[in-house]
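The instructor's notes for this session suggest beginning with a concrete chain rather than abstract definitions. Hand out the sequence below and ask the class to guess, before any prediction is shown, which regions might be ordered.
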Amino acid sequence: MAVPQRYDRQSRIKNWNQERISCTEAYLVGSDVLSDIMLVDLLSLGFSRVYRIGQSKSFEFEKINPDVYLEQTGENITTLQDARRVFSEANPKNSIIIECSNDGRSKYFSSIGAREKNLNFFSASSTENGFSFTTKQMDEQLIQYHLSDFDKVQGFNNSLACSAILSDEIRKMIMPIEGDIRLEEYRHSGIKEANSLDKKILQVGAGAIGTFSALALARMNAQITLVDFDTVEESNLNRQFLFYNSLGRNKAETLAERVRTYNPRCAIRGINKKITRDFEPKNFDFVFSCVDNNEARYFLNESARKYNVPLINAGSSTDGCSSAVYYPGKTACLDCQLGFKLSDAMKPKEEVEAKRKPCECFHPSLIIPNQIAGALMIDSMLKSIEENYQKSEYSSGFGINSGSINDSCFRMCKSKEQK
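After discussion, reveal the predicted structure:
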């Protein structure tokens, strides 16, 4: 059976079976930030139906994926009777329950309601200091597991990471792929949050990673300039969820418009432009590299060095992602951090760039690692402001790990600079 174009990039993952996902319905409990992001993930992955016990107008959810039936009830689960009623039509063969609130009663009664109907149950919570989820704790044990998160404010960056990693575990249960490593439960602390950011940010790339970093920057009311020359294609929609009804439009301009819709106070603009050798990031406090090729990273690395502007770089694969900061004079450059010369990606001058056809030779991609990369970029930036320079990596089945960055380049790179 032909796979819809919007799922093309994730369907290119070896042994991916979109039909398994498209036959699964989810009952999502919660009305806060974490359930908002989880709803985005479920819609983007292509679940058949999503029933949200709760409601939010944070995004125009009904426009994200018209292939998915969506119903938001506006209800809360405060008793076992509530849980039994809202889960009454759930089918153990193709229904799952995802509880994403920071409310103890909701988690407790939802878990009992799921157990009574033999439904797969997932529970997650987030705060401004961390997040946790479990696929195995129930009843009183579930309360103890999430106890430290109850009644706390949910953090946006932590919710981005939590929802994505849990979505990966849900995928593994619904559609296992050879080589999967399961995380039955996971707890992480240390992803930084900020309520405001008085910085000017130049973000290069308005695609999969850039969608989430731009949203996070906007929530902090940073001054944002987005740069991207690419246009929206249908195959982007499985991970660039704000591009609904925008096929053929420029990504930077469209993303800026959509972000401004959800945060009118944010100063954000989009520029239709390709980054080249003459790139000059003047008058910016940080440059975000959300690009998908090393040629562009080379230009960004060199311009960061030349203009002494900190560079936050991220990249993703189908099962992982990473983020790191290049702070000229304080950390090693991207060449030294990555362990190879970005200049090797430069094409011969006489080579004419071929016109790209939609989806031609595209690599597999899905929302999960790109969403985490966006959160890690914000974390890298906020920590670098405190002079804490780290590289963070996510790997499916292992979670997020961070480490320090060398404070200077290697000898070969230094000798190149002297020349």
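Then share the key points. Residues 156-174 form the longest helix (19 residues). DSSP finds 14 helices and 15 strands in the chain.
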